[in-house]
Specification:
The structure is a single chain. By secondary structure, this protein is mostly helical. The protein has a single domain, classed as 23S rRNA-intervening sequence (de novo design (two linked rop proteins), Up-down Bundle), CATH 1.20.1440.60. Helix content is about 80%, strand content about 0%. It is built from 4 helices and no strands. Helix 1 packs antiparallel against helix 2 and helix 1 packs antiparallel against helix 4.
Length: about 120
């Protein structure tokens, strides 16, 4: 099985492309400030899922999935900022946020399949 077979990876990639499509139409100032950060954190979701998957050890995979989850939360924040600054329509912001919340739930479920959390020593 390859990382491309993971549904959470596929969905993260689709959301990343959707965000890219929106940001690429913004004016220079918006792209240079909020846009770059939004694209980076969105792309980081799939990138961290991929990197963790490639580590071949459940603890490393979990760690990078936690990073992906952090990037997902950051993405939600920048989507809210983009909507409040009239860079994306409120309806689209809500749609993207809903997709990201669903992805977060699926990512959390995936993390649970990777084995137990390490015990505190």
């Amino acid at each position: 099985m390859d990382v491309e077979d993971l549904e959470i990876y596929q969905e993260a990639m689709r959301i990343g492309e959707e965000i890219w499509g929106q940001v690429s139409r913004w004016d220079f100032f918006a792209k240079d400030t909020v846009g770059k950060q939004l694209v980076r954190c969105t792309d980081s979701i799939a990138a961290n899922i991929s990197e963790g998957y490639g580590r071949y050890h459940y603890a490393e995979n979990r760690k990078f999935c936690f990073y992906a989850r952090g990037s997902l939360e950051e993405t939600i924040t920048f989507i809210k900022k983009s909507a409040s600054r009239d860079l994306i329509p409120a309806e689209l912001a809500q749609e993207l946020e809903t997709k990201l919340i669903t992805l977060r739930k699926r990512l959390n479920a995936y993390i649970r399949t990777l084995g137990p959390a390490p015990r505190d020593q």
